[in-house]
Write a structure and sequence with these properties.
Layout: H1 17-21, H2 24-33, E1 37-39, E2 44-47, H3 50-58, E3 63-64, H4 93-104, H5 107-111, H6 114-131, E4 133-135, H7 136-141, H8 144-153, H9 163-173, H10 179-186, H11 189-197, H12 209-218, H13 226-237, H14 240-255, H15 257-265, H16 270-280, E5 286-291, E6 295-297, E7 300-302, E8 307-311, H17 312-315, H18 319-322, H19 351-368, E9 369-374, E10 379-382, E11 387-391, E12 393-398
Parallel strand pairs: 2-8
Antiparallel strand pairs: 1-2, 3-5, 4-12, 5-8, 6-7, 9-12, 10-11
Helix pairs in contact: 6-19, 9-10, 12-13, 14-16, 14-19, 15-19
The structure holds 3-methoxybenzoic acid (OVM).
The site of 3-methoxybenzoic acid has 9 residues, from helix 13.
Family: Belongs to the cytochrome P450 family.
Organism: Pseudonocardia yunnanensis
InterPro entries: Cyt_P450 (IPR001128), Cyt_P450_B (IPR002397), Cyt_P450_CS (IPR017972), Cyt_P450_sf (IPR036396)
Length: 399
């Protein structure tokens, strides 16, 4: 990249252990450095402020996804798997499959899941509150989505243990070729094979989101080659994201006892608590775009063919947008407009399912527990894209 202009630079490795463990001090320096910052470690441009992150996400023709939303540029290197037709695609191709997915995950389809999801959440919350002490990651966040979502897709019961490892691989793969990515890809074969096999029509239940995608082939909306790749998107984007979203929500609420008290007193706040948790500690921290042309952002020219790293988790804590208390977790604020689900044409197509899961599970817990406290130190889980926890020991008081 040739830059005659002076662009602020930061030498940090945004995918190093220090930043992945606690990204917020780095986010703060990134936002202060400027609207567009050069990261010489990978020779790429980065944005950490809300306005520019949001504007870039929305400008899909300048900041494209088709060359990959990780560091790897698909124009120069072969992707680790055939690209996602949704995440790693641009209009007009993207528009066709996104329209199909919007129909598959329609408000009506999600409403049909509500009773089952609520019953499963109530059952798990009963058991956890009866125990009194549990791990909010391994006993709750990694359990609940796997009890409801694979059934909603129509996956066979056998082999579901591959789902979480597969997601970990996919989200690590967006990063640079560091140890996280290399180790994940080296151990991915079994999970990859299972996912591939179970995106086929014959493997999926006759009713469910998977079957609904395949039905679009019969209507001539997509091809039989596209259908399994779209089912794959459900399995890649629909499990780890909700696991991290639930765990991060419990973490935020346990860290802020007065916020839990407010939620317990008024469980109707659950949906706001979830959005605020997504804002405050966003599961998906970063995505890349690639510029298709020289483009000016807040006075800085970004050359054509540049990988641009968008810090969603930083935009969600930018005081320029959220005010001086941006770093404060407050379930009564309006977190609307956060970019934890992205923004624009790629904004999370499954977010209604994520919201349904979170409202059911967090609501069930909030109604049953008057208090939740840490019962040991939370243990971070490092991933090149996802921010979250390997373990959150908690103690709950029934009432
Ligand atoms: C996909 C996909 C994969 C990872 C993430 C994602 C957050 C989508 O395969 O389409 O969105």
């Amino acid at each position: 990249m040739t830059t005659a202009q002076t662009v602020p630079a930061l030498g940090d490795d945004p995918f190093g252990t220090e930043v992945l463990t606690d990204p917020y001090p780095f986010h703060s320096r990134l936002r202060e450095a400027g609207p567009v910052v050069h990261l010489p470690r990978y020779d790429l441009m980065a944005m950490g402020r809300y306005a520019e992150v949001r504007a870039s996400l929305t400008d899909w023709s300048t900041f494209v996804s088709g060359r990959g939303v990780g560091l790897a540029d698909f124009a120069r290197e072969t992707p680790w798997r055939p690209p996602s037709l949704l995440l790693e695609a641009d209009p007009p191709d993207h528009t066709v499959v996104r329209t199909v997915m919007n129909d598959v995950i329609s408000p009506r389809a999600v409403r049909a899941m509500r009773a089952t999801f609520a019953a499963a959440a109530d059952e798990l919350a009963d058991a956890l509150v009866a125990r009194g002490r549990f791990d909010a990651v391994t006993d709750l966040a990694e359990v609940y989505p796997l009890r409801v979502f694979p059934d909603a897709v129509g996956l066979p019961a056998d082999g579901r243990e591959h789902l979480l490892p597969y997601g970990a691989v996919a989200f690590n793969s967006f990063g640079p070729p560091n140890k996280l990515r290399t180790d994940a890809l080296a151990g991915a074969a079994a999970a990859h094979e299972w996912v591939l096999a179970n995106c086929e029509r014959e493997a999926l239940a006759p009713r469910g989101l998977g079957a609904d995608i395949w039905a679009a082939v019969d209507r001539g909306e997509i091809t039989g080659e596209q259908a399994p790749v779209l089912v794959r998107s459900l399995l890649t984007a629909g499990v780890d994201t909700t696991v991290y979203g639930l765990a991060n929500s419990v973490y935020a609420l346990a860290r802020h006892p007065e916020q839990w008290a407010a939620l317990h007193a008024d469980p109707k706040l659950t949906k706001f608590a979830f959005d605020e948790a997504l804002r405050w500690e966003s599961p998906v921290q970063t995505f890349f775009r690639t510029t298709t042309t020289d483009t000016e952002v807040a006075g800085t020219t970004i050359p054509k063919d540049t990988k641009v790293l968008l810090f969603l988790g930083s935009a969600n804590r930018d005081t320029r947008h959220w005010g001086d208390d941006a770093e404060t977790f407050d379930i009564r604020r309006s977190a609307a407009g956060h970019v934890a689900f992205g923004m624009g044409i790629h904004q999370c197509v499954g977010q209604a399912i994520a919201r349904l899961e979170a409202e059911a599970m967090l609501g069930a817990l909030a109604r049953r527990a008057v208090r939740i406290e840490f019962d040991g130190d939370p243990v971070p889980k490092l991933n090149n894209t996802l921010k979250g926890w390997a373990s959150i020991p908690v103690r709950v008081t029934a009432g």
